[in-house]
Amino acid sequence: MNKKETIILLICILLAAIPLYLKVYFKPNMLSFNFKFGAARTDTGTLEDTEEIIPQEPEEPEEDASAETASTGIYNKLDMFVVNIAHTEAQRFLKTVITLELSDKKVVKELAKKKTVVRDTVISVLSSKDFPEIDDINGKEKLRRELINALNAKLESGAVINLYFEEFVAQ
Q1: Nearest Cα to 129, choosing from 77, 93, 79, 75?
Q2: How is it placed in the membrane, per its record (predicted)?
Q3: What is the pLDDT of residues 15-44, one digit of tens each?
Q4: What is the rounded distance in angstroms from the CA atom of residue 116 to the CA atom of residue 107?
Q5: 75-170 CATH fold
Q6: pLDDT tens-digit profile of 57-89?
Q7: How many degrees, rounded to 5, is the angle at CA 157 between CA 155 and CA 161?
Q8: Residue 71 in contact with residue 101, Cβ under 8 Å?
């Protein structure tokens, strides 16, 4: 292989690698302008000619009919919790940060008023758990449900729909 062929081969490899690099390191549609120009792909994957520029509407996610599974978008992040884990020979700790998904904006105000009660409830539930109870995914799901039920028992104006562990470290 002479020098010219080697350079051409390297250029071809680079040109082939650029789309792969863009796919891996950039978000989809990051470089697209959401317009169809000339021959555009349709949903079937075939090419069709278009004569005008057509802005594409962003796809809206289909809304679920059930209110229980629909996300409200009302979130309230609680302060960090660090508790001793119950019934352990060695001293074990659980550190977690919790965000609550709420049914109504009124619940945010109620949580602020009852901050001490909410923290006490969460600490009581967390510190009552053994290490094996929270060590696996099923235990975390059970803990999530237990916390939701305990918090909902303290609320009057709405409910906690879901609970998210932003941090969860047990050692």
Answers
A1: 93
A2: Single-pass membrane protein
A3: 877 766 555 555 554 444 444 444 544 444
A4: 15
A5: Tetrahydropterin Synthase; Chain A (3.30.479)
A6: 545 444 433 334 456 689 999 999 999 988 777
A7: 70
A8: yes
